[in-house]
Amino acid sequence: MENGKSTLFEQLCVKNKEPTLVPPAEETKKGLYFLSNLDQNIAVIVRTIYCFKSEEKGNENVVAVIKDALSKVLVHYYPLAGRLTISPEMKLIVDCTGEGAVFVEAEADCGLEVLGDITKPDPVSLGKLVYDIPGAQNILEIPPLVAQVTKFKCGGFVLGLCINHCMCDGIGAMEFVNTWAETARGLEIKTPPFLDRTILKSKNPPKSQFPHHEFSEIEDKSNSSGHYEQEILYKSFCLEPDRLEKLKTQALEDKSLENCTTFQALSAFVWRSRTKALELEPDQRTKLLFAVDGRSRFDPPIPERFRWGGPVLSGPVALPEKEVILFLSHGEERKSVNVVVGLPSSAMKKFEQLMEI
């Protein structure tokens, strides 16, 4: 599958109704909601879809149920009902207006089976299942939460979400979706999310105790930025357990390492393949960053449910940034790994060859 040109997806026709606003079911706090420096770092739009099957219940009332549950859950996640703006300090911040999330009802003229493997990003086709705000020029013009519910003829439905990463990371987004689903089933929210992000405010004045190379600028000696003026192709590469084990064996062959994890071996292999595919100069400095969940490492500890941070399937619509590569567990026992990458068309063919083990 390349950029939504799948034959199956050509069958996917989705008709949207007019978008509406879903405000919190009760009065919520108003005013400005603080976002930490960590939140400011990755203020990108993340589009994901969640597929639900229900042969027994069907989907006749699903839109009304989900919409009602959203209004109830927004009482607890009220910043998602606000709007992003810029503070006097020129920082991203949320104006808790209570306007509500954007909600769209849609219908597809086929069954869920047409979607195939949704773990592979496909912005053209999967994008039909996530509503984009028309004419939006920047993230300030996109509400923090946009939801689309698409009903399929088989009785299943897809929840497509468009959420700004500054509002919640992957773990937080799943907690939000799970809380939303529990509310739709009539369950009470046992533990509300902890929303006070001011506990992450930086020292005043700031005190840096070690270099932050992750923010340093790197000279592009290889003119790699020119590659990204081309069409970006999205591909998914599935590595089975035996191939992952082979990578680890290769990493240890020269005896320079005593041991190596699957993540380390795979990261190094993918990074080297990407570097070769982009034909970077030998003296080109590069930067490899990993997204990790650091909640358990805070001292003093941060509160539980400081996240926000049962679909049958979920997947990314597109990679949030051109330089992002995703590792997704795959298979019945989740022992395989899907490597999802977006590269310029000129580099993708070489990358495919290099990924052959």
UniProtKB/TrEMBL annotation:
Annotated TM spans: none
Keywords assigned by UniProt, alphabetized: Transferase
Top-level taxon in the UniProt lineage: Eukaryota
A Pfam family that the UniProt record links to this protein: Transferase
Similarity comment: family membership: Belongs to the plant acyltransferase family.
Annotated protein name in UniProt: Omega-hydroxypalmitate O-feruloyl transferase
Organism for this UniProt entry: Rehmannia glutinosa
